[in-house]
Amino acid sequence: MCPLCSDTASPYAQDKKRDYFRCPTCSLIFVPKKFHLPPPLEKSLYDYHQNDPSDAGYRNFLGKIAEPLTKLLKPGMRGLDFGSGPGPTLYQMLKELGFPTDIYDPFYADNPKMLEKQYDFVTCTEVAEHFCDPKGSFDKLTGLVKPKGYLALMTLFWKDGMSFADWWYKNDATHVAFYSRRTIRWLEKKYGLRALHLDERAVIFQTD
């Protein structure tokens, strides 16, 4: 069963470590739960991430979502960086640009109070591919955004026609959900979203 839309999914690919299924309805490619890492092991891998706020290269990478997002924001808007990681950087960049931003991360900034209010914008960078429960995660994310607010996601989108066997992005053991433009269109219909920006790495939705 697809963990995003609950339709019946079919086997799609297999490698030496994991199986992959694909949903015919929302086009999500996902790894069955039996192959998911236990949380302590998952966190131990995230601890190796070099997410340094002073790293110009990392800031440039995050600029792929920050630049198109800030063009849409108005002065005074406040946001949340969901899944901010061990070295929160995007929230710092947004604050520097005049948009106060809170952080939440289940491993590094687990403050449930941050999830009890709504924001003008929510960012989720290099996080959606880690969603063990995509439906629950998108239910939560969309609920955090005010009407006419923005949900900005950054992940590497799968494209039809690519060789999945050779796609490097699937090889990270913590990556368990992969999205395509078809998935984006499904999310728009399901949650009442409108994609204002979409490229191979980022999508920015506006809520109804």
Can I get a quick summary?
This protein has 208 residues and is of the alpha/beta class. The chain has helices at 39-46, 56-70, 90-96, 134-144, 181-191; strands at 10-14, 19-22, 29-30, 79-82, 101-104, 119-125, 145-154, 177-178, 193-198, 202-207.
General description of the model:
- The protein is α/β, with parallel strands linked by helices and 208 residues long.
- It has a single domain, classed as 3-Layer(aba) Sandwich (Rossmann fold), CATH 3.40.50.
- 25% of the residues lie in helices and 24% in strands.
- It has helices spanning 39-46, 56-70, 90-96, 134-144, 181-191, and strands at 10-14, 19-22, 29-30, 79-82, 101-104, 119-125, 145-154, 177-178, 193-198, 202-207.
- The strands form two sheets. The chain has a six-stranded mixed sheet, sandwiched between helices. The chain has a four-stranded antiparallel sheet with strand order 1-2-3-8, with no helix packed on it.
- The chain is globular and about 45 Å long.
- 32% of the residues are buried.
- The mean pLDDT is 95.
